[in-house]
Each structure stands twice: as structure tokens, then as C-alpha cells.
Amino acid sequence: MVHFDCEPLQIGNLTVPIPIVQGGMGVGISLSGLAAAVANEGGLGVISAAGIGMIRKNSEEPGKIDNVRAVKEEIRNARAKTKGVLGINIMVALSDFAELAKAAVEEGIDVIFAGAGLPLNLPEVAGLDGKTKLVPIVSSAKAVKVISKWWKEKYNYIPDAFVVEGPMAGGHLGFKREQIEDPEYQLEKLVPQVLEAVRPLEEESGRKIPVIAAGGIFTGGDMKRFLEMGASAVQMATRFVTTDECDADMEFKQAYLNCKEEDIEIIQSPVGMPGRAIRNVFLEKVSQGEKRPANCPFHCISTCKPDSSPYCISVALINACRGRMKDGFAFIGANGYRIKEIVSVKQLFQDLALEYAEGKL
Length: 361
Description:
This protein is an alpha/beta fold. Helix content is about 35%, strand content about 15%.
């Protein structure tokens, strides 16, 4: 394990030796392979639950989509490969959010990260077993206050940590389109605000509540900057895509290697949120009004409106993770164009450690 001159991430009784959380990436980009590899290097490896049953074949009932079964199998697969800390990212907007959270707890996952909406009922659906840590993903101090007030009043539970994700992240963004470039909503502004909102919760609970900075963090120098700002850890996703252990197809990874800065754009997702992605043939056809069939094969996102959507985002992302980029697209963080090679997760941690020591941005 490489050395970073910083404190480990402590979430209750969980210790993550290197305060790097690998962001959950769906559909099928961060599964057991990547999550276990990150955990083995001392980080917190995260499985994405989004669309997980659509990409994992059900051996007992071929053709049947069983997300709960797939979540349990994926956690077991990861556990077989590592003794490190593992998490799962479950989007609140998923129509089976409650069932997936319950399944993850039953399988003994260490952390549930919940975003793409306010996870107001997470303590209820996950249960309060004390082992699984419950971590909302937020984009403002206001969201911290809303969630913590609701959890306290309804469940007498205070979140175990928070991820604050800024607008330079890849994938779906918790911001209005006009806020994405607004300096007032950049991560450097959000982290101090969230830290201030969390402080009373720490005083009330008598324990440390880590704040994890996310969104556009690319180098070890970025990591150092946000740790010095008061964050307990950083979340990184984009840079883990171009690793040997990433669960995506090689063609998906190649899209990252080929990406130029001008290829990265903000799209309007069928789920009703803006997102950051790599412009390609598929997205160009969508922008030109070439509609995809307006049927809904999965009913996976509660906020999706299939009758008015130009395409099914689940189908597009499944195609992409399988390497069929003409029929799908890749989400990417704002700094993704800087990636030039595919490395192992071990090598990436070594690179990040060197960048951290040098303060390289």
C-alpha cells in the first residue's frame, strides 16, 4: 500500500487507510472488479447499483431482470476479492431504491452512498443495524440541513458522513444548467458551507461526521487542496475508468483516451437532470431530433418520462458499458480529457501519491 501523508478516513468504526472514495459509476462501469481493486489499495471501493440487473444475466431465469439478486451477487463477488472497505451507490431516483438498499444491508455492505435526489427515507428502508453507514450525496449546505433534520425527527439518526459533489463531476449533476459555470456553486465554495452545516451535527452527536469532497477532483494535488480545506476525504470517479480493473468494455475506456476538452458537453438527461458526457454520434443524433423508440423496457428511473424522452438512458448506458458506443454514450468528469493512458489501480494510487506529495494540480 502506498503512503499518503494524511489521516485515514474514519466513518464511525470504519477505517479507510487512504482517504479516497472511488465514485460509483453506472451503468456497469464500477462493479466488483473495480471496487475490490480500490479497496485492496486502501481506498473505499464503490459498486454502482444503477441498472445492475440489466447487465448481469440471471442464470436461473434467463431474460428476467432482478436488480436485488444482482446487487447481492456483486457484493459477494467483491467481498471474495478484498478485505477492504466497500460501498454501494444507489440513486434515490431508482424505482427500486428501497429494495436495493435493504438488499445491500442484508449482504453486509459497509457504506451506502445515496444521491440523485434527497434520501429522506434511507434510514427506514436500510434499517439501523449500526454496521452499514448511511451517507447522503448532496450539492449544497441546504440539503445537509434538510436531510439531517428529517432523519433526526423521523428516525433519531444523524448521517454518518456526507459527500458534497460540485458541478465539475461526470454523470448526472445536482445543479441547474446555469449554476454549473457559476463561481458561487463551485466545489471550493460548497465545501466550507457544508463543513459549517455539519459542525452542529457533530456537536449534537458527539462524533466526527466526515465531509467527502467530490466533482472534478483529478490529481493528488487536488486531493491535498481539499483535505487542507477541511474535507476528510475526496471522491474520484473519472480517473478510475481508465484502469485495467474497471468493469467497462475497452471501447468505453478508449472513448476516454480519445476525448478532447471540446468533446465534453452538458446534456439534458431523460431523467430530468443535466449531465456531463462525451459528445459522440449517438448524442449528435439526439440533438438533431432523431428520436429513439419511446417505449420503456425497464421502468428503472422514477423521474423518467418515457412518452417524451428521446431515448432510453438505461439502454444507452448499457450499450456504452458493453462497448457499443454508436448506440450509447459515456459520462465523464470535466477533467477527463486529461487522461492519456490505461494503468492498473495500483499504479494509479502510486501516481496519486506522487502528485499529492508534489502538490501537482
